[in-house]
Amino acid sequence: MDNIPQYRKLYEILRKHIVRGVYSEGDLLPSENELCATYGITRPTVRQALETLVKDGLILKKQGKGSIVRKPPQNIGILSIAGTASAVGVRYLKTDILQKPIVKTWSEDFPFELSELEQESGCVYMERLRYVEDEPVFYDVNHLPNLFLPRITQRSFENKSLFEILRKHYQIEILGGEQQLKAVKPTVKLRQLLHLKPGQPVLYIERKLQTNKEGFNIYSTIYFNSDKHAIFGSF
Amino acid sequence: MDNIPQYRKLYEILRKHIVRGVYSEGDLLPSENELCATYGITRPTVRQALETLVKDGLILKKQGKGSIVRKPPQNIGILSIAGTASAVGVRYLKTDILQKPIVKTWSEDFPFELSELEQESGCVYMERLRYVEDEPVFYDVNHLPNLFLPRITQRSFENKSLFEILRKHYQIEILGGEQQLKAVKPTVKLRQLLHLKPGQPVLYIERKLQTNKEGFNIYSTIYFNSDKHAIFGSF
DNA sequence: TTTTCTAACTTGTATATACAAGTTGTTTTG
DNA sequence: CAAAACAACTTGTATATACAAGTTAGAAAA
């Protein structure tokens, strides 16, 4: 049964319209009142959807004027919940699964604090390499608590969104998260994986994502080649 | 005359309470209904203030339970509007003005697109070095359009917030912004300024901040030593 | 004493309405 | 023809209210 809130439905509709070019940069979205009429919902609900588009950097609201569509960020938005860069502006993203999901224990030096439930459950571990236009751009390692995830090690993740699989098959939604970013020197392995130039540093990101399941967070560490693409954020 | 919206006033009150330790990590804020009663405002207004606290990573809301105070991020939050790290969790931030504001033309290779008004006005240029606990952590270069800023070159900026000065003396408010982050190799000058180890990279951030003045944006480029501190963001 | 149930709380989502403040296009006036 | 005024739009802020869904503490029952 469908219980997605109305404001999120509208957000998705408008986001898709923007990303697919139904509205171009500089266009005005339909006014709040027009959206009320079109979708049969009220203005506070419409405004909530629009606020989320602002948050994602897709529109800029101007009092008295309207909601202006912005150029979809050409760089990879990694601050938004969407997570997968395909959500915003990047032309083509391919994913290789370097290590398919396996069950293992948490490593001793795991950088995040784990809940007791998480500690006891062990983790599902996977590694991916992500490409933009056939160039490897980021290498990410995911640790998920080994909870609520029956038979996940037997699933195929090639070119699929981890979040989509979690949502569709396990009813796990990402609610929010936090991250820390640093510039670091790459290891030899990373240099090879990401096709880095000699001496070129990488962006290192530690992310902890909260979900709708109590005590179940997703932990990502990401190494990002920021030579041609930057990490983009708006606020 | 005071025309700050009520939701922002409440946000500031609660933010200060959190930052000053009136509420500690793990504490619950007063409930939405309690805040309504205490401050004589309605629940949607309270919720708007709380949403902004969530956005800044200061609280986590849990349906049925309450608003839980989070550990103030120990790292420098640079994604929020507050800008100055003193807004959130950093113990001590000192600023040296390496280049006091001067009027100059925009450089040819300026990385941002400028509005016509901005191009015609020339810019106010300044350089700062920011310290956390006496360690230089970031070096930032600001370009402001030479508009609306009489006698700004004669002002003192030592250990003062640029945004405070803009707000107080020029009625310029930051409304939002966007930024791009990359990992880069530092120049010799940067290595010296930021006390970097040999081979250590820096985080490079390009920020464009929108203000309440039409056609007036603030452009910052920041070089950040992420050895001991990370850039923090929540979403 | 333990388990179950219930009431009272919490935040989440939504409707309805009103006025403030900004923008823009049209009309009126000089 | 240009400038000023005005109307009609826009988003911003706020109140009021209701029900959904989650959590927790206490009471009742086993």
Q: Key features?
A:
homodimer, 235 residues, alpha+beta, Arc Repressor Mutant, subunit A, Chorismate lyase, 2 domains, 6-stranded antiparallel β-sheet, two-stranded antiparallel sheet, 10 strands, globular, DNA-binding
Looking at the overall shape, the CATH architecture of the largest domain in chain A is 3-Layer(aba) Sandwich
Number of strands of chain A: 10
In whole angstroms, the N-to-C terminal distance of chain A is 34 Å
Low-confidence regions of chain A: 79-90
- The total tally of domains of chain A equals 2
The CATH class assignment of the largest domain in chain A is Alpha Beta
Question: What is the structural class of chain A?
Answer: alpha+beta
| Spatial ordering of strands, largest sheet of chain A | 4-5-6-9-8-7
CATH superfamily of the largest domain in chain A: Chorismate lyase-like
Which percent range fits the helix content of chain A?
A: 10-25%
The overall pLDDT of chain A, averaged over residues, is 82
Tell me, briefly, the overall form of chain A: globular
- Could you give the order of the helices and strands of chain A? HHHEEEEHEEHEHEEE
* Cα Rg of chain A: 19 Å
* Residue fraction in strands of chain A: 25-35%
Q: Which assembly state applies to the chains in this document?
A: homodimer
Look up the CATH topology of the largest domain in chain A: Chorismate lyase
